[in-house]
Design a protein that fits this description.
The complex is a heterotrimer.
Chain A lengths: L2 H32 L6 H17 L4 H24 L7 H23 L15 E3 L2 E3 L1 H23 L1 H11 L1 H6 L4 H27 L8 H12 L4 H22 L1 H18 L14
Antiparallel strand pairs in A: 1-2
Helix pairs in contact in A: 1-5, 1-6, 1-8, 1-9, 1-10, 2-3, 2-4, 2-8, 3-8, 5-6, 5-8, 6-8, 9-10, 9-11, 10-11
Chain B lengths: L3 H17 L6 H26 L7 H19 L3 H23 L4 H21 L1 H4 L5 E2 L4 E2 L3 E2 L3 H23 L2 H11 L1 H6 L4 H27 L1 E2 L6 H14 L4 H17 L7 H15 L3 H9 L21
Antiparallel strand pairs in B: 1-4, 2-3
Helix pairs in contact in B: 2-7, 2-8, 2-10, 2-11, 2-12, 3-4, 3-5, 3-10, 4-10, 8-10, 11-12, 11-13, 11-14, 12-14
Chain C lengths: L3 E10 L2 E11 L4 E5 L6 H8 L7 E6 L2 E2 L5 H7 L1 E3 L12 H8 L8 H5 L3 H20 L15 H14 L4 E5 L7 H18 L2 E5 L3 H7 L2 E6 L2 E6 L1 H6 L1 H10 L4
Parallel strand pairs in C: 3-8, 3-9, 6-7, 7-8
Antiparallel strand pairs in C: 1-2, 1-4, 4-5, 9-10
Helix pairs in contact in C: 3-6, 5-6
Classes of the chains: A mainly alpha, B mainly alpha, C alpha/beta.
């Protein structure tokens, strides 16, 4: 197999993987802080995509759409957290799983009521004509996804290391009790992490939309994000990123060799295998219930 | 013990009622009550696994699919008689349920939910992949069979009675199991796997039994659902179905056999009652699920037993002095 | 042959030695006490014997069978039972159901007999319920028979824990602080019941206790742990006068 094709596949894999990585991050961040694994996170993505669509159809330019969508999504995320997620914080796992699942479905079906099953296109400010570099053909949309994902990951890393809010989030995810004693408003942090995760999801929705189109099933990418998070170990942020990228690359190569159906089975086979053999994934540590 | 007479009474009333019911109904209505019975079987199975044994399963629909395809394919491709094909479908589902259980044994909570979600997806993909067998996305025709004695299940009335017999039998078995060491083991494992081990019960074996049992019920339900509809539609065995099944047991009362029967009945009949709101159907279901979860954690059955509370209630006068909490 | 033999048993979690090179032997029909200051490793002893925590080193033999690597439910099936310091009862089940669950390993009816309500199952259930009633009677729990365990006060739960453990008809019963949380009256009653049942049914007891009055009057032999190591072993009288024991308790400033 020629070098060009390998690079091509690698690039596609990393681009798709960066999407998985971002969604995985949006799952793991609130999970670490509040112990809630949001089984409806895919629909937060969907929400963002539809908000962006609405703004776009209203005639706003792409950049403004992006910024506004992120702000609106963050706000919506904080509201949803306060109203629907907060009651679940110390609930039994079954309730959290089914509750968040139901919340996601409510969002999906509500969107579907208005937008129907039609597939919408989000206009992007660059053409989808592939750039040709030597013998490589690079899809600008994919390049954009990859670049944004890298920037966001770097920004998040900085955020968690340097900013007060970021450090507070880290404190809460390590030890709620101690954080409280140190004067950190734990509930406020829950809202903030959820707002962050919804905004992340919305961003992914915007990035992914040109590739997949906007339609009610967009949220299904969450399943891949789960696999990515499991690969990385649920308690690790870098792990989620690595897991996502790894999954994207493995999937793309598998798809090239074995056809598209097997590519999907591969992802879930990996999920089940990891859960059986090494539930802590590559980087995770033993999870203990939040005190 | 306390509910034994209520149970006997329920059986005594229900059976003749269900036996004469269809004679008063038209064809479409018979189809609906048959569907209720099928959903009862599915709900009872899921409740044993999730409500009693405490294992989260988001792939109950997959076992239905396995049962549906196995039963129908055995009948249409290999000419296997219905009375053999149906239980075989159940067993096939049970075997796969056992396989999934091997994953469940190590996992719990979120991880288990994820694994079952993965299994759900894999089944959907497999249905498509093996399209030459399953008909893929186009689905599979599931014609009504005739059974021993020349009874034609093509007649809605005959099918109803066949399904009724199966349902009554499976509900009876579930009831027996719940009042036995098996059922007690389920409930115990859910609350404290540690304590149950010290009593000589293997949590692993208990979970295996629960998964296989639930899958068997789902497989039977699937086999029946297929021939009831006359068609197996693969999209019926995805996340929407999962939502419905879970809502059956949550609304009815998780952990309660009666609850799962009530939940399945109410939710199957509801869309019929609320005609014209088809679009809102899924949204309504999801909202109902969330509402039940938060507002009615013990389901409808819990509400009823709360209003009709009897039995010993602990109070200061009743509790002997030496049993009261020591004053602090 | 001793009923239970421990040789050089060590239990280590990460860097912490919960139990350090402990050897002891419990005889058939004996009532053995295990005491020691807080954190001495007493509960870990019970946990390692019952297989709930792994045995890092050493050997544990029950009726001459090596059990240090066996799974917990297998160990229970061999005839070792236990109660829990913080009672692990089945809160969603009634009192009688808790006791019935305790009997699981002795009931003659398995899955198929139960599912199809075969005569064997029906007789088995009836016999089990009668036996359960007797046990409830013995522990003064009859009035709570159909109450959900989760609704009961701690003292009652302690009795239930004991009744349930005895329902399994163990040969050796490990009791983890059986009287904690009970009133003085309740404690003495429970211990008398346990002792009577033990003597009558030939059950050997292994009891962790903080209540000195109770353990001194109950036990035949007492083993003392401190920092995971055995520091003394002997009759109650001997232990009370043992300097090492006195030092351990005074030194650790523990309650006694």
């Amino acid at each position: 197999m020629s070098f060009d094709i390998v690079v091509q596949l690698l690039f596609s894999g990393l681009s798709v993987g960066s999407i998985y990585a971002l969604v995985a991050l949006s799952l793991v961040i609130p999970f670490k802080a509040s112990g809630i694994l949001n089984f409806g996170q895919g629909e937060m993505l969907l929400l963002g995509a539809y908000v962006a669509l609405a703004l776009s159809l209203a005639g706003l330019p792409y950049w403004l759409v992006m910024v506004l969508t992120l702000l609106i999504s963050a706000a919506l995320g904080a509201v949803i957290e306060r109203v629907l997620m907060r009651p679940l914080v110390n609930a039994p796992e079954f309730t959290i799983v089914i509750g968040t699942y139901a919340i996601g479905l409510i969002i999906k079906y509500a969107m579907r009521l208005y937008w129907q099953d039609d597939v919408y296109r989000l206009p992007v400010p660059f053409s989808s004509q592939p750039w040709v570099i030597g013998t490589l053909r690079i899809n600008p949309v994919y390049a954009w996804m990859l670049v944004v994902a890298l920037l966001i990951t770097a920004a998040l890393a900085l955020f968690f290391q340097r900013s007060r809010l970021g450090k507070a989030m880290r404190a809460v995810s390590q030890n709620q009790q101690a954080s409280r004693l140190m004067g950190i408003g734990v509930e406020r942090i829950f809202s903030a992490t959820f707002a962050l995760s919804t905004a992340l999801g919305a961003l992914v929705g915007i990035l992914f939309a040109p590739v997949a189109g906007i339609h009610p099933e967009l949220g299904n990418v969450i399943l891949k994000a789960f696999v990515a998070a499991v690969i990385g170990g649920f308690t690790s942020l870098p792990g989620a990123v690595v897991g996502g990228l790894l999954l994207g690359v493995v999937e793309t190569f598998a798809g090239a060799f074995f056809g598209s159906t097997l590519r999907n089975v591969g992802a879930f086979a990996i999920l089940i295998l990891i859960l059986l053999v090494r539930p802590n994934g590559l980087f995770g540590t033993i999870e203990s219930r939040r005190v | 013990m306390r509910s034994m007479w209520t149970a006997r009474l329920a059986w005594l009333l229900a059976i003749p009622l269900l036996a004469v019911l269809p004679l008063a109904l038209d064809g479409y209505q018979i189809y609906i009550v048959t569907l209720v019975l099928v959903n009862v079987v599915v709900a009872v199975g899921l409740n044993l696994l999730t409500g009693n044994a405490g294992q989260i399963s988001l792939c109950h629909a997959s076992f239905m699919a396995i049962g549906a395809y196995t039963t129908t394919l055995l009948m249409t491709n290999l000419g296997v008689p219905f009375l053999v094909a149906l239980p075989t479908g159940g067993v096939a589902a049970a075997v796969l349920g056992g396989v999934l259980a091997l994953a469940a044994i190590r996992l719990s909570g979120f991880y288990l939910a994820l694994a079952t979600l993965g299994f759900l997806e894999v089944t959907q993909i497999a249905i498509e992949e093996f399209g030459w067998l399953t008909g893929g996305v186009r689905g599979l025709m599931a014609p009504r069979p005739t059974i021993v004695g020349g009874i034609d299940l093509g007649s809605d009335l005959h099918l109803y009675y066949a399904v009724l017999i199966v349902t009554l039998f499976l509900v009876w078995v579930a009831y027996n199991l719940l009042e036995s060491p098996v059922g007690r083991a389920f409930n115990a494992v859910r609350v404290s796997a540690a304590a149950v081990q010290t009593l000589g019960v293997s949590p692993a074996r208990t979970k295996l039994t629960a998964f296989a049992l639930a899958a068997f019920y789902a497989g039977i339900g699937g086999g029946l659902a297929g021939i009831l509809a006359g068609f197996i539609d693969p999209t019926e065995y995805g996340t929407a179905a999962t939502l419905r099944h879970i809502t059956f047991i949550v609304l009815g009362g998780i952990g309660s056999l009666v609850g799962s029967i009530v939940g399945a009945t109410v939710l199957t009949l509801l869309p019929e009652v609320l005609r014209g709101a088809a679009e809102y159907g899924d949204l309504f279901y999801a909202a109902l699920l969330l509402g039940s979860l938060i507002l009615m954690p013990k389901g409808l059955v819990g509400l009823v037993s709360h209003w009709t509370r009897r039995g010993p209630v602990l109070s200061e006068d009743v509790t002997p002095a030496q049993d009261r909490e020591p004053a602090r | 042959m001793s009923l239970l033999t421990l040789e050089g048993v060590t239990v280590r979690f990460g860097g912490v030695h919960a139990v350090r090179n402990v050897s002891m032997a419990v005889e058939q029909g004996e009532i053995r006490g295990l005491i020691g200051p807080n954190g001495a490793g007493k509960t870990s002893m019970i946990n390692v014997i019952t297989g709930m925590v792994p045995c890092t080193a050493g050997s544990i033999r029950f009726r001459d069978q090596e059990i240090s690597r066996a799974p917990a439910h297998e160990i229970a099936r061999l005839g070792i039972g236990r109660t829990f310091q913080h009672v692990e009862i089945f809160s969603d089940q009634t009192v009688v159901e808790n006791v019935l669950t305790g009997m699981s390993r002795h009931l003659p009816h398995g899955f198929w007999a139960s599912a199809l309500s075969l005569p064997r199952a029906r007789h088995g259930e009836r016999a089990a319920r009668l036996a359960a009633e007797e046990l409830l009677e013995a522990f003064d729990l009859t009035q709570y028979r159909d109450v959900l365990a989760g609704d009961l006060p701690f003292g009652v739960l302690k009795r239930l824990d004991l009744a349930r453990a005895l329902a399994a008809r163990p040969l050796l019963l490990l009791l983890d602080e059986p009287t904690s949380g009970m009133s003085e009256v309740g404690a003495l009653q429970a211990i008398e019941t346990a002792r009577t049942l033990a003597r009558n049914h030939g059950i050997s007891l292994f009891v962790i206790e903080h209540n000195m009055r109770v353990i001194m009057s109950l036990a035949d032999t007492i083993t003392v742990l401190d920092y995971g190591e055995k520091i003394a072993e002997g009759s109650p009288a001997a232990i009370q006068d043992d300097q090492a024991v006195i030092d351990a308790y005074l030194g650790a400033n523990a309650d006694a």
